[in-house]
Specification:
Layout: H1 5-8, H2 16-29, H3 35-54, H4 62-84, H5 95-100, H6 108-134, H7 144-174, H8 182-187, H9 191-207, H10 213-233
Helix pairs in contact: 2-3, 3-6, 3-7, 4-6, 6-9, 6-10, 7-9
Length: about 240
């Protein structure tokens, strides 16, 4: 069993405090150059910053947001558990990051963005559908939950760059490796645009519930497409 095994055995979690605790434990267990660690550190930093800002922001349905955050994080932990189980049924969106995690010709920020790509574009639509269903609500444009979702987008816009620049770029310098073209890779991807797409995909998946093969085909296609994008984010850039 790897160092992550005992940590992942405690998942899924049921509260946002447990989400932060689990990601903190993963951060402490992995070497900083591990590709999974690079994503986990960005995810943890953004989560902590957004949680700190939530206290100064008014939300229409904060309980929904908390439940969504937990459901969302549990999908990340689930992907890691599958990877730990000899790669059994790892979502294709996550496979590029997991497969390349030890590659030193890929910059830490690329690992981080590939993880965010997999997590937001593949996992967030699923988390939205599950959370809406559990609370007996529906994802409609302009609903309080959608308005809160967009408020979080605004919070993320102010924290994403801070976390990227503050830690991941510093790590790149500490590695003493020159990564050419990383700025171009970073410019390709935006968390706000990804979350907008995730809401749309979640709404489509909501209407496909119970559609049998069509529902499964849609998720499988989304999974493959997100995985393809992650491979594009993980092109070697070390000089």
């Amino acid at each position: 069993m790897s160092v992550l095994g005992p940590l992942l055995a405690r998942t899924p979690v049921s509260a946002i405090g447990d989400v932060v605790a689990c990601m903190t434990a993963i951060d402490q267990a992995l070497p900083p150059t591990d590709g999974i660690a690079c994503f986990n550190r960005l995810y943890l930093g953004v989560t902590q910053n957004v949680l700190a800002a939530v206290g100064t922001t008014t939300f229409g349905d904060p309980a929904f947001l908390a439940a969504l955050d937990v459901e969302f994080a549990n999908l990340y932990f689930s992907a890691l558990r599958r990877f730990e189980a000899a790669g059994v049924d790892v979502p294709r969106a996550w496979a590029p990051l997991f497969d390349a995690r030890s590659e030193r010709t890929i910059a830490p920020i690329q690992f981080a963005l590939a993880g965010m790509n997999a997590h937001i574009n593949r996992d967030l639509p699923l988390a939205l559908v599950t959370t809406f269903a559990a609370r007996g609500l529906a994802p409609t444009a302009g609903c309080p939950q959608h308005q809160d979702f967009e408020r979080v987008n605004a919070l993320l816009a102010t924290t994403e760059r801070e976390v990227k620049d503050g830690y991941l770029d510093q790590l790149t310098r500490e590695l003493d490796v020159v990564f050419a073209g990383v700025d171009d890779v970073v410019a390709m991807w935006s968390v706000a645009r990804a979350r907008d797409a995730a809401w749309t995909n979640g709404a489509v998946m909501w209407h496909l519930r119970g559609a049998g093969p069509l529902e499964q085909d849609y998720l499988a296609t989304l999974d493959r497409t997100v995985g393809f994008a992650s491979r594009g984010l993980l092109v070697p850039t070390a000089g």
